[in-house]
Amino acid sequence: MGIKQRAKAVRSAYGALQELGRDPTSLKFDRITSPTRAILGNKPVVLFGTNNYLGLTFDQYCIDQTIEAAREFGVGTTGSRIANGTYEQHRALEEEIAKFFNKRAAIVYSTGFMASLGVISALAEKGDHLLIDADSHASIYDACKLSGAETIRFRHSNPDDLAKRLARLKGAPGDKIIVVEGIYSMLGDTAPLAEIAAVKREAGDDVYLVVDEAHSLGVLGETGRGKCQADGVEADCDYIFGTFSKSIATTGGYCVSDVEEFEALRSYSRPYMFTASMTPPTVATARAAFRRMAELPELRERLWENSTRLYNGLAKLGFDLGPEVSPVVAVKLADPQTAVMLWNVLIDAGVYTNIAIPPATPNSLSLLRVSVSAAHDDEQISRALDIFAEAGKTLGLTGGSSSLTASRVA
Amino acid sequence: MPEGATNVIMEQTNEIQTRVLDLLCKKVGAARPIDLDSSVVEDTGLDSVSVMDFVMELEDEFDITIPLDRIAEIRTVGDLADAVQTLSQVSAAAHGGATVEGR
Question: Is residue A404 part of a domain?
Answer without folding.
Answer: no
